[in-house]
């Protein structure tokens, strides 16, 4: 299909793309053509053009083998890297553009191997057939700008459906991670998954076990941070994939929560995740989202039947934190992410001890101290965990948490002020002014405290000069006096200060 076969809006999208990238991509295409090779923009780079998203990372494919690619690009590129060369990929930087050039290929996994076997191909159409989904199996040849779409990717893009170029069983056998990628695209793009693809995912779910933990982690993380994570997670649970990669999630379906407010804890969890996302203020927060997803995973292990038919989950937050730490560690998440997410799971019930505000200031301080740098996320997780359908009760919970946040802010302000000290203590004031303990020391202390509040840290020498100037202005020292010197052998006694300075020192 050539560009002329596209609709007017599609042609404009392609034209806009090449207005931006032509100086780089067309120039590179001409270099490959002079070397007797073909080059095409491909995959997500083409898909995103029709979604109205054009980034600075571009994917290209070629019939040239990796060694030949290096020969062509090295004299031209600003930088070249070969981290992925064993998989046929050469990385290139040119100006602001990051390019990945991959030799026509297909990947397949041995049933007992975690590493894909790379086989090179000879045609663009063959390369596209081996890609994960039809929406990623479109290309634009360069420098001629011929649009290539042999598997109907553009139509599927318009219908927001994920299909595979060939039989889905072959696609997932080539790379089982594509099953997780289907769920990730459902989350990121809001696409539905074709029924045949869903059926293949269900039949082949156990194949995901040969994929490395790191690759699984990356897909799950992108899914969680997508715009529609419920869709992706639901797909994983319904197809049985979640049982292999995140088994804590489907097991929540067996539990009815202790308040009988929800169909099950699984649905409650997805609702909490969505409500946490709604409270984000600056883009996806992976720590908050993972904490929302994992916050109740300890319930199946702590479920107890109480008299009267009530169900309890005592200490599920502690058990859940342990389970979260174990799962995220197994997925090879960074240690700081593991620590932060599991800590939020452990703390997510703490607020419910607040009641209607009975906590002492000391208890509020402990709440803040225990949350540490996670306090803002804990605020959001706690609010998101309120999913009762009783509007009056929900509003009461939010008002109570508002009250707690207000107390935290007030205490923080008061105690931050109380931490501020003048840069000179009572003994230093006595020594500089040559005075004995008494009310005058307190006045000098208050002057220095005001100075500290007004000007911040100015250093001891500047504070000393300011103190001397204040003393002259207030008759403590003669206006033309020099700095008083302590008498030989005289040591300042510990100052008692007046009430205000003593309180400031004790705060």
From TrEMBL:
Its cofactor is Mg(2+). Residues 482-492 have a biased composition (Low complexity). SMART domains: HDc. It comes from the Bacteria. GO terms for molecular function: metal ion binding; nucleotide binding; nucleotidyltransferase activity; tRNA binding. Keywords: Magnesium, Metal-binding, Nucleotide-binding, Nucleotidyltransferase, Transferase, tRNA processing. The keyword Nucleotidyltransferase applies. Residues 478-507 are annotated as: Disordered. CDD domains: HDc, NT_ClassII-CCAase. Residues 265-381 form the HD domain. One of its GO terms (biological process) is tRNA processing. InterPro entries: Bact_CCA-adding_enz_type3_sf (IPR050264), HD/PDEase_dom (IPR003607), HD_domain (IPR006674), HDIG_dom (IPR006675), NT_sf (IPR043519), PolA_pol_head_dom (IPR002646), PolyA_RNA-bd (IPR032828), tRNA_adenylyltransferase (IPR014065). This is Poly(A) polymerase. The lineage of its organism: Bacteria, Bacillati, Actinomycetota, Actinomycetes, Streptosporangiales.
